[in-house]
Design brief:
Elements lengths: L4 E7 L3 E8 L4 E8 L3 H4 L2 H15 L7 E8 L2 E3 L4 E3 L12 H9 L3 E5 H12 L8 E6 L3 E7 L2 E2 L33 H4 L1 H14 L6 H7 L4 H9 L3 H25 L3 E5 L7 H14 L9 E4 L6 H14 L2
Parallel strand pairs: 1-4, 4-7, 8-11, 11-12
Antiparallel strand pairs: 1-2, 2-3, 5-6, 8-9, 9-10
């Protein structure tokens, strides 16, 4: 029987998502399990293995039907060794031999990469990237991450840390908030969901007016989504906050584009659900930072795959690594 199926895994701190895919990127089935982070995350790999074994049995598939498994993981990923360390949201503080364990228990080839890189592959293959060979992916959520694809190849760098877009230093002024990495003024500290709230809190303190954001903040309901929703309704202060955040995003995106020259910059993650207002405001500022010959050649798009980007990209990782 032909090995015509792929398995993609998107490992997250709360939920682990899985998909069974065809080699053309169609999802045949998808499912998820709770990520059990207790006891130093010692049950994460056993739970994944058991879940895959149960699904293969349900579908009456064997290792002869599966070309391989790909996975995107948070933390510091060593692709060659197949290990992960420092994935603190998983409680993985020590080195985890992910590849060796999965291959030994499942008898399938296993490929591993950073979760943002894998999401970039998903959007390139089946999403907003439209299979463009030169793409930058920016994911805005709890943090800010990214992936860079040039000539159809993920850029990893000497130590597998290429694409850490969230830790570009973009501010040394009033928005130079401390970042979780130990620096200040990182893009993540401004354009993540919590960073947008920090910008809003500072703007609320500096401005007095009729904005509905004052009532929202008093209720303790200040969130990135609410800020974007009020901006869409024309709230002046919300519009100003969105403009400030998107200016910093455009500053980062423009400088990245000047160096690697992608055709498209795809913005994903939970914040991207703001949609057109996010895209259009980033585009408005992007021209200020792009090398002039690139201004009409660098597109901005909103990601299309939402929560499926990780599992689809993980599946494509098998094709890229095994069939290269």
């Amino acid at each position: 029987m032909a090995q015509d199926k792929l398995i993609g895994i998107d490992l997250g701190g709360t939920t682990t998502k899985f998909a069974l895919l065809t080699q053309t990127g169609k999802i045949v089935d998808k499912w998820s399990i709770k990520t059990q982070t207790e006891d130093h995350g010692s049950q994460i790999l056993p739970n994944m293995i058991a879940s895959i074994q149960a699904k293969l049995e349900e579908w009456k598939l064997t290792s002869q039907d599966i070309l391989g498994i790909g996975m995107g993981s948070p933390g510091s990923v060593d692709r060659k060794a197949g290990t992960v360390v420092g994935a603190y949201n998983l409680n993985w503080q020590e080195v985890q031999a992910v590849k060796a364990t999965m291959e030994e228990e499942l008898g399938l080839d296993f490929y591993l990469d950073n979760d943002a890189n894998v999401a970039a592959l998903g959007e390139q293959w089946q999403g907003a990237g439209d299979q463009d060979p030169n793409l930058v992916f920016m994911t805005l959520g709890t943090g800010v991450g990214g992936g860079i694809i040039l000539d159809n190849q993920l850029v990893h760098g000497a130590h597998d840390t290429a694409g850490e877009i969230g830790h570009l230093t973009v501010s040394n002024d009033r928005f130079d908030f401390p970042c979780t990495c130990g620096k200040s003024g990182c893009l993540e500290s401004i354009a993540s969901a919590s960073g947008i709230v920090k910008v809003a809190q500072q703007m609320l303190a500096e401005n007095k007016g009729q904005s509905q954001l004052y009532q929202v903040a008093d209720r303790g309901d200040l969130e990135a989504k609410v800020i974007f929703d009020l901006a869409k309704q024309g709230d002046d202060l919300a519009l100003l906050i969105v403009d400030i955040v998107c200016d910093y995003l455009a500053f980062a995106a423009g400088n990245i584009a000047n160096i690697v020259n992608p055709s498209v910059i795809v913005i994903g993650g939970g914040v991207s659900q703001a949609g057109a207002i996010l895209k259009e405001t980033v585009e408005k500022h992007l021209a200020d930072y792009l090398f002039p010959p690139l201004r009409d050649k660098t597109r901005v798009k909103i990601a299309q795959l939402e929560s499926d980007a990780g599992v689809i990209g993980a599946g494509s990782l098998v094709l890229k690594e095994k069939l290269a």
